[in-house]
């Protein structure tokens, strides 16, 4: 009995020490979201395709942080193509607005579903204003999903092909907006090859991806029924598991931070869970990830809230 107790105590001590080591590395390498732009600039040297994930399609703070990042990348780093995990035909209409055509933005966004939010209105308006001021270096948006791309075993390859077509045709630096599960480079989270894996195969070190995670708050989800069509709800995030990356990130010295995962980091081989909310509100609410292999970097926002839908 004493021997069993000793083994249990030893295992608990080892786990505690590992968490302390992980947290120490995190606190030494994380940069507050109030001042991470110079670090991001350095990390993106040589990158042609940047993919921004998100732990949900209904989180206000993810959207706002991506907006700020895209504005910086467009204005300062020369990114001119922005792709979204949504129908190409719908984003062709949004692009008309951004290019200065006489388009009613609110009406054009009618079918954007989870992206039909005030945060996206602000992004599209900013991009249009940028194009108005920079007619010789205009930005364009596109959707890399198409009708028919619904087979989960082929969808990510098909969406990757659309991105590669755009990048080959324009020779532009590209930003992509999608869920974390599509962004992952390793197979731990999606269980099959996702866009991140395929894009890594095409662009190697010219591809860079950033996951987004959160600890607590609320999220907007979307459901479909034959009677009511698409409906939206606000849900409270479930408490995170203590033995998870999300819990560890929540203990960092910065509540909101950016961190680059290096090959020698303690996160390069570990597999634990991070927040995962699909479009609808259903379990699992967290998924395992070998985070240092799945993603080049992470943006963590400790407390988040639901996205703000626009209405007619």
Describe, in plain words, how this protein is organized in 3D.
- With 312 residues, the protein is α/β, with parallel strands linked by helices.
- The protein has a single domain, classed as Rossmann fold (3-Layer(aba) Sandwich), CATH 3.40.50.
- Helices cover 39% and strands 24% of the residues.
- The protein contains 11 helices and 11 strands.
- The protein has helices spanning 2-29, 37-43, 60-77, 88-98, 105-108, 118-133, 155-170, 180-183, 195-203, 245-249, 291-294; strands spanning 31-32, 49-52, 79-87, 140-145, 173-177, 207-225, 229-236, 256-260, 272-275, 286-289, 297-304.
- β6 and β7 form a beta hairpin.
- α7 runs parallel beside α9 (195-203).
- The longest helix has 28 residues, at 2-29.
- The radius of gyration is 20 Å and the shape is globular.
């Amino acid at each position: 009995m004493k021997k069993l107790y000793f083994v249990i105590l030893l295992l608990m001590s080892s786990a505690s020490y590992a968490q302390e080591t992980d947290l120490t590395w995190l606190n030494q390498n994380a940069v507050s979201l109030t001042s991470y732009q110079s670090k991001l600039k350095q990390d993106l040297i040589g990158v042609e395709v940047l993919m921004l994930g998100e732990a949900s399609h209904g989180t206000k703070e993810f959207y706002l942080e991506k907006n700020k990042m895209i504005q910086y990348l467009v204005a300062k780093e020369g990114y001119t193509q922005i792709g979204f995990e949504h129908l190409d035909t719908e984003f062709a209409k949004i692009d008309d607005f951004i290019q200065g055509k006489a388009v009613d933005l609110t009406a054009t966004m009618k079918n954007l579903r989870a992206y039909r939010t005030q945060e996206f209105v602000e992004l599209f308006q900013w991009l249009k204003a940028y194009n108005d001021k920079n007619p010789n270096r205009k930005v364009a948006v596109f959707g890399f999903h198409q009708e028919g791309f619904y087979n989960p075993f082929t969808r990510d390859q098909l969406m990757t092909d659309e991105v590669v077509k755009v990048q080959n045709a324009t020779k532009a630096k590209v930003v992509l907006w999608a869920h974390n599960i599509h962004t992952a480079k390793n197979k731990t989270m999606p269980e099959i090859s996702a866009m991140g894996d395929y894009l890594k195969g095409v662009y190697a070190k010219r591809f860079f991806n950033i996951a987004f995670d959160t600890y607590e708050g609320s999220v907007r989800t979307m459901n479909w029924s034959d009677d009511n069509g698409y409906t939206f709800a606000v849900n409270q995030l479930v408490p995170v598991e203590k033995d998870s990356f999300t819990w560890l990130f929540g203990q960092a010295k910065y509540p909101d931070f950016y961190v680059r995962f290096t090959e020698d980091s303690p996160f390069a081989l570990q597999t634990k869970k991070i927040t995962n909310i699909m479009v609808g509100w259903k379990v699992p609410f967290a998924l395992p990830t070998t985070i240092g292999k799945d993603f080049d970097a992470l943006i963590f926002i400790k407390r988040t809230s639901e996205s703000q839908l626009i209405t007619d």
